[in-house]
Amino acid sequence: MSQKNSILTYSYGTSEYIKSVSKEKKEEYNLHLIDFIENNEATDIFNSHNLHHLSDILEILKKIKVNKNSLSIPTSEYIYYDKNIYDFIAQNTTLLACDYNTFNQLKDIKSIHKELEDYDISFPITLYKKSIFNKQYLIKKKISSGGLDTFFVSNSNENKFIKDKYYFQEYIDGTNYSVSFIALKDKTYSILGFNKIFSKKTPYSDFSFSGCLRQVKFDNKYLDTIINCIDYFISNFNIIGFCSIDFIIKDKLYFLEINPRLSQSHLIYKSFFNNQLIDAHIKSYNNELMNINYDLIYRGFEHLFAKKSFKVNNDIKEKFILNGAKNGDFFNKGDPVCTIFYFSDNENELIKERDNVYNKAQNIFYNEVY
Fold it and tell me: CB of 39 within 8 A of CB of 70?
């Protein structure tokens, strides 16, 4: 009997992607979750591997005995942090993600901004060296995930600036959004929807990504700008599969960044693909668009973080709580504890449902989360 090949997701705190797979794929492949956040989920659906250091990936992949028929799908950007790690994955598995050079081109904010000007797309004032700041600025890490390593500039953190790794960007007090889409090899794409993005202050960032809402009200006057932005990236870069673009709206639309991968916001589109996000992503690399079943349900999710260090003293069985928090788990201040999901048939009711499940989660964790 021949050994099954593997599907591997490289994640940071969520097992939902590796579970968003068709029955056929589960029978054809062994499923592996490689995650920087410890996952003790009891399941026979996938194998869980916890990372303590980035270099642990190498030993994990050797132990799994991957080959070029193994499919690697990053849902976080850490495989690009170390060229040796990336090369090992790319050489020993089939990587369904943008290549190393493309990824770094997309993170070259200075060059991207120059080209976006030709598409009449605005972006916050961005500086690449220390300066005298006459307004609020952020210090942002060039390559990061989930809003980590983004802080308001202050005397205490300005010294962390390292050329080519960090940059300064004007703070715009507007509303954050993203647009989610899926692209094929032939440069065609389908927009899935617009999302309102939320963040929370943690020890790791002033803007840690904390969730989003789907089906939000969105002013159509910005639609042409967003399409121009997607067209620019599709035309000029080799990006395939699920992607999202973050932007902020105040007096106008400002581009922030592109995420050329399955990002967390795609979790609220699982229903569009019959809970088979991984299948849809794989098909896109074969230039096949999986049937999209658009629905009108309003959906949202929110990550809850530890207010202070604490230990969970009860089993969490509620269906609206996902991604972690088992009896005996210990969390340091600012660590992600779990994710709450909610849905409704209109945006106002969605906000009420969010408050409902949030309050339930507070009771479950004895007000130790936010």
Answer: no
Local confidence band at 1 (pLDDT 50, 70, 90 cut-offs)? very low
| One-letter identity of residue 353 | E
Burial status of residue 239 (CB atoms within 10 A of its CB: 0-12, 13-18, 19 or more): buried
CA distance 279 to 265: 17
Give the model's pLDDT for residue 42: 58
The Cα 263–Cα 283 span in angstroms is 17
- The residues near 192 (Cβ < 8 Å, ≥ 6 apart) are 180, 181, 182, 266, 269, 272, 292
Q: In angstroms, what CA-CA distances link 241 with 103, 188, 203, 280?
A: 14, 11, 32, 8
Can you tell me whether residue 250 is helix, strand or coil?
coil
Residues linked to residue 177 through DSSP beta bridges, in sequence order: 196, 247
Confidence at residue 217, expressed as pLDDT on a 0 to 100 scale? 75
Query: Phi-psi bin for 300: left (phi > 0), alpha (psi -120 to 50), beta?
Result: beta
